[in-house]
Amino acid sequence: MQPPLDLSKARRIVVLGAGTAGLFAALEMRRIFGPSADITVIESPNAPIVGVGEGGILNLPQTLRRLNIDERDFAEKTGAVIKLGFAYLGWKNGQSDDIFFHMFHEGRTGAPQAPIYAGFAPNWSGMLANKVPLHYAMTNYELIEAGRSQEDVWRALAENPGKYSYSFHFAAERVAEYLRSIAIKRGIRCLKREVVDFKIDSFSGHVRALKFADAGDLEEVDFLIDASGFARLVIGKLYKTPWRSFRDHLLLDRAIPFHMPHQTPHPALATRALAMRAGWMWQIPVRERIGAGYVYSSRHLTDDDALREIETTLGFPIEPMRTLRFEPGHFEVIWRGNVLAVGLASGFVEPLEATSIGVMLDQIWSFGFDIENCGKIVPQTTIDLFNARSVSTWSQIRDFLILHYDSQRRDTVFWRDIANLTRPTEYSALMTTWGLRTPRPGDVASYSFSHSLIFDWPSWLMVGQGVGAIAPSSAATELAILPSSVRHDVGRFLNSLHSSHRVPPTSDLDELKEAAVHSELVGGANREAEHKVNIGVQQLSQGQLTAAMNSFNQAAQIDPYLWQAQLNLGRLLRINRSYNEAEAKLRTAVKLRPKNEAPWRELAILLHETGRLFDAKAAFQEAISLDPSAIAMRFGLALLLQELGDQPGWTEQLRLATEIAPKSAEVWRRAAELQASGGEVESAISAFCRAVDLAGEYPVSTDFYNIARLRFTQGRFREAKSNYESAIHISPNLAEARVHLGNLLVNQKLGLESEAEMHYLAALAVKPDLVEAHYAIGLLYRRWGDVAPSKAYIEAAFHLDPQLAKSLEAAESKK
User: Which pLDDT score, from 0 to 100, does residue 118 have?
Assistant: First the structure.
């Protein structure tokens, strides 16, 4: 058994490398070990300086705050500028309008992923289903859309603490100079010497000292951080740690960096990633210029051809820096004994999504967390867990980058080859799942080992939507199960996006309508197929759904142009929640009978049920235009408009429905239900009363019940009592009415409590599992001092439905 690593008395801490990784690590060591430790940063005098623009992610400002570095001072002295996310151009299909944003999303108010319902985010799913780019919901995007300057953004950050998530774009060499000056002020030695060898403890394998090219004294060490960049002097060359390559999954292995002037009046607020023939071009703005580069696959492009493509794309010549060559991957162990590798010394993949600095800062934070959590005496199990987390983090990054290439582009050999690569098992499992539903918080938790994720599930969904890897249909089942209150919240959220951000409604039905108008039927219907449809309809009326499905399928096979077969198949598939297949059948029916209201109606119902509200609205309107007297369609459209928060729209549809059938009690009743759900209480009461009048000698108990509930909300308790009594007179087994009447008798003192007891017991005789009745009679017995039956009934309520019972308890406590 290996002894623990005892750093409680560590005094000689050496950081090998003076880039951003080494200096951030040195400052973290000073924070952890305090002023008593001797911390030394050793920089090779021959280390190349590459002035490539870099961008951080959310953990960069977090690190600055943890290290007590003022962010504004950092920006002023390094030329860094605010970064709000990433802009991707040409990644989905390469067309001129192919652009999406991956915005930072942590710590904002009004985040679209809140609240979570049943494990997923309805607002996210609603946006996906309606093909609304997710960046429109991001508060950060407001600043990009408005073309704000850096000073505007700094002002917005100051005026709205916590509203906007951000990081920085920066020039690495200037940040290194800045961090070096802070390190020196904090008592950290910075030396320029060339390390040529190491003194190793023969028993433990720990590094005990560094040897230099100019001979002289050895630099003794208690703990060593390998931040030697691509040189990888310790974990790589000294210990020869196994390397885990990603070359089978990530093809890019070359990069040509260069500088270019700003193309906008002030630095852009997002990193630009422009898809190219064999990779992509980054454009990272800093104050004076843009740091850019083309990262590409050497299997698909020569260095000379890459340079030519850069200049052709930009339209002007560039001065390229040294071409960088790398193999995507990482070391399997980055903390060994008293050595920790960070940054490039631990691994590297292409710079997509600012993974390099993001991983480096995560490594430093995670190391500091473990050291402090262990009281500086670290067991080998903690080191092993740290290394396992590192492997998992790199797997997460590998799979998240693969998602960016899981697109529809096939226009060059590179894009075709990368689409045909074998995907890692973990990635394939996620994409199979996300073909059936949207990403959820638990889906990527396995990458985290209970620590923070570099890229959480909202990032996967934003990028997956952007490249088309996560389709709108994945949200269908989720949205179909939402209760009306949540669906209304989603609808209002979507409508607010369209209003405030000028997001155009989707035109998903435009192509269908165009095809439907120009469709031509092929001959007359096949009689055998028609017979099968008739059999299917009869089977449906008898509740034989499986047999009906078979009959309609047979009809469609005999005659693919028989629209009734397609229509009924679509209906049944929708009932079975096979939404993609159902939609295909209904679209076929629409194309075959574009001037018939029924296919449009069924398609509208499916689109509404699956949360595609704007396309559903268009389909309802088309159905109504074909049959203006279709009352059911007006009610369907009214319900949808109510979800979208369009009060004038839904009230107008109800008015038209009641004008079409002014003598129908059912029409007035349905109108009243929608008015009640929309908060139009007085109108709803009037409509229910109209339904009662039209029913004449055969009144419906639920009309009185609903009138009573509405009048109760108005505080008209005596009228409510009378209406509940009317409902019970018509339907003595209406248990809910008895419970509400009992509550009125007790709480409003409108009758005898013994009468209330009778109603509660009668309700339970009809519905033994009615939670409200159990809780109400339990409270009544508590008032009477009958402890045992009171306890029994209330416990029964909590046993039947703990959540509902808690809400009843909370409501009672407020009285």
Answer: 85
